[in-house]
Design a protein that fits this description.
The complex is a heterodimer of chains A (about 290) and B (about 725).
Chain A lengths: L3 E2 L4 H10 L3 E3 L5 H4 L14 E3 L9 E4 L2 E5 L4 H6 L5 H8 L4 H4 L4 H7 L5 H8 L3 E6 L2 E6 H4 E3 L2 E2 L6 E8 L5 E8 L7 E12 L2 E10 L9 H7 L4 H18 L10 H25 L1
Parallel strand pairs in A: 1-3, 2-3
Antiparallel strand pairs in A: 4-5, 5-10, 6-7, 6-10, 8-9, 11-12, 12-13
Chain B lengths: L2 H4 L14 H5 L15 E7 L5 E7 L8 E3 L26 E2 L5 E7 L2 H10 L1 E6 L6 H5 L12 E9 L2 H6 L3 E9 L11 E7 L2 E6 L4 H12 L6 E5 L12 H16 L3 E4 L2 H6 L7 E9 L5 E13 L5 H10 L10 E9 L13 H18 L4 H7 L20 H12 L1 H7 L6 E12 L5 H6 L2 E6 L5 E4 L9 H13 L6 E2 L19 H18 L8 E5 L8 E2 L4 E2 L4 E14 L4 E12 L6 H20 L5 E2 L2 E2 L18 E5 L17 H4 L1 H13 L10 H9 L2
Parallel strand pairs in B: 1-12, 10-11, 14-15, 18-19, 24-27
Antiparallel strand pairs in B: 1-5, 2-4, 2-6, 3-5, 7-15, 8-13, 9-10, 9-12, 13-14, 16-23, 17-18, 17-20, 21-22, 23-24, 25-26
Classes of the chains: A alpha+beta (about 290), B alpha+beta (about 725).
Chain lengths: ~290, ~725
Amino acid sequence: MVRAFKPADLTEALRLRKETACVPLAGGTDLMVKYRNWTGLPPAFPGDVLFLSHLKELQTLERRGETLRIGAGVPLADIAAWPETPAVLREAVRGIAAPAIRNVATLAGNVCNASPAGDGICALYALDARLELTSVDGTREVSILAFITGPGRTVLRRDELVTAVLVPRRAANIQVFRKVGTRKANALAKLSFAAVGEVKEGIVDAMALSFGAVGPTVVRSTETEKRMAGKTLAEVTALAPSIVEDYAALIVPIDDQRSTAAYRKTVALNLLKSFLEGLKEKVKGI
Amino acid sequence: MNKSDTLNETGISAPVRRVDAMEKLTGKARYISDYPFEGLLHARLLRSDRPRAKILGIEVPDLPAGYSYVDARDIPAGGRNGIRMITDDWPVFARDEVRFVGETLGLVVGPDREKVLEILSGIRVTYEELEPAFTIEEGLACKGGPIVGDDNLYGTYHLTKGDPEAAFRRAARVVEGTYRTGFQEHLYLEPQGMVGTWEDGKITLYASAQCPFYIRKSVAHTLGIPEPAVRVRQVTTGGAFGGKEHFPDVIATVLSVAVNKIRRPIRLVFERAEDIRFTCKRHPSRVTIRTALDEAGAIIGMDIDTVINAGGYTSSSLIVLQRAILHGIGVYNIPNVHIRGRAVATNTFPSDAFRGFGAPQGLFAIELHMSHLARELGMDPGSFKQKYFIKTGDTTITNTAMKDEIRLNEMFRKVDAMSGYRRKVKAYDDDPLKGIGIAFVNHGCGFTGNGEQEIIKAVAEMERLSDGRAALYVSTVEMGQGLQTVLRKIAARELDCGVDNIVYDNPDTDRVPDSGPTVASRSTMVVGYLVQQCARELKRRWGEGPGTRVRKQYRHPEGLTWDQDTLQGDAYPSYGWGVNVVEVAFDPVTYEVKTTGIWTVYDVGVPMDTRIVTGQAAGGGIQALGYAAMEVCEVVDGRFRQHTLTDYTIPTAMDFPSVACEFVENPYAYGPFGAKGAGELVFDAAAPAYADAVGHLIGRKIHEIPVTPEKIMEVLQDE
């Protein structure tokens, strides 16, 4: 028999998490589908369920110095509406599912689901986001890159809960998110592309690029990004073919029920090329 | 009847509030899953998970008290293990061999769902696997040996007009193209579902369905009992689109065998993924058209080879095939034509009825081919097609005179004024990011040939009730299309009363005559006409007091002939006519196509309610654009690969713009107030218009739908 826990506060939630092999559930929009059952029967959860969305400690959106702290229980709709949310993340969140889902689903849940097609995840990679993981023994921070180890796999320990998504606040006058979905709403990504960068006086100060749904995890290459840093926009444009080549080696998508490997790869590289070639225009517009 | 009389505020076309709007919008409407039954049992099908195999054994564990496993051994003596659709080759329970993944093997029934699932997972089926055939090509090649007969064909038809051989002999040039369409899932909002009970000494089925009398016939056949010994009650049905024409027979027969054995109410309702995986889809098609042109580039003949993928059993595939080839040359007068049509057996789930019933496949091929011919000859598709429009009195593909009054030229003018087609089709030739397409269609209303007369023999009745209202007794159903409103409107107008004064309950085979199935764009035109005749007579006899009952039976219009064996004569009593223009824009980075305009003009005789028919035009148009652009449905190892709402992507309101719709009035003498059918016509044109538009956009020929961004990329890289 599956037990369901509704803890009074975060302390109790952490204790339950440690003492039982429970499944943490915030919005439930992934889990209720994953464990769906014959209508009329409870969902087929593999173990006890720990409800989290009601916990006040997880409901906050706050700016702490140079970090944005997004509570693990905050629904996507609130994140999209928060003025502090970086444009790239706002755009990604707005494109997730449909309004009803966005009213209950959480960003932390999107991260824990660890789907390579997760829209929020792709933007968080480009933003160098970190996860705040809490257990009764304390709190640690892990970068999203280290947190997700494969499709559906994370380094979250069995006694830990994700308590917040932490996004560094930094200047970024380039913020692009593009989802190529199976349709225009309520869709999963065939692939996605995020870019976060800062261009100062025609020189690229920093550039982060990420690609979703084109490999087992989101693709990001800090090495190639470094090749762009310190270059003028004209130099980056000239480098475009070689940058595209770098990513061509890293992007190894698969055929599945939503698209083909060939399409994913071609379009991911097309988006990159079009982004690099359009950089000048983008900066002019800022 | 002039335009001001019908489309104005007081005419029959003037919209009224749908009688079912409030109960559906407020959630009060009860669907099959909402009905409580005393002592209800739950049921789940045991299905084959092999596409083609011999069944070596089915091992059922010992069952706890109160639980049952039902299979072919429970069919009573005198009954038959066959589902009587058109023929009865599809067994209720698989015989010694399975022909597709999802074929019914047995049914587990019991009070607790958890336990039912546990029993189901404990059943061991052993198979000897055989080599399956999934595609049209594999079916035609008899891969793994024929599934049926010695050629794997359920049937072959030929239609010949004029002397096509001579035409090809003198042709200056022959243009050939092969056109393909895929599976399409109905995706009605409410999945398949039924409750079977033993009531008042007879099998009673509460069904989400289109055709209560089809169900009654199938169940009687399987149980070997007279049809009146079965009662079928339609409950509010949340969409059907043809998916609840024959498939409910598959559920009803299994359920009836179980109810006959257990004598308790049993509910069998599909989950969504179960419904997508294990119900019929639209037939995939492959149509090859060869056209003979003379020196001047005029069409002098056509040879058309049509194949549909029928799947593991016949279901209604031969009738679908007939409609596909009867619509094979579309709205054109082509002089010398030969069409061969074949329905091929494969190891996929049997394909069956879906809005349009074969016509969309036939029309897709001819419309796209005509567009391709136009491009080859340096003309725009609209102007080229117009040259060949059939006219009243021209010879049809079935060698009789076209009797409809045809308004295609007027419709083309109208759609051009709405869309700017003629201007844009030239302007976009040089625009790499824009395209526009056009398709003209007709759709035969009612059953093929003399089917209404020979097979259906529809009857409708009306009665004056004691409270001053009038009751309507017909077997055609409301399934979302608006029939409850339309039939009441027709009766109310004749009786000079409000729509609320007409009682039209969901059909119950014990209470209504058989006015036929709710299919084939026949309900308004054929049944509506009977309702109008009933209402007229009832009005005359109103003074006879409460209880006065009138009855009308279908009579085929004078002067129509048909030979079902040779498919010669008047293929349909009348046709609806339509034109669609679709405009598209391109994202060259992602190969995504955005539809920027959809304009439609229809001749449905006289629309019985402009809001309802406009709603049909919008729904049918968007459903067809989903079919054309988005709804990928692949078969991998005999299984539908896209089987969730996430992966089987029907359009949302965000995916296409609104559908503009106008009508050309053209009253039909044998329809109520001049009405003809509309429900399927509105599906037929959007897919070829879209494919034409995408072809125009990318400057390449499109031959296949769905035209996904992946396919467009392939076509562009194929150079």
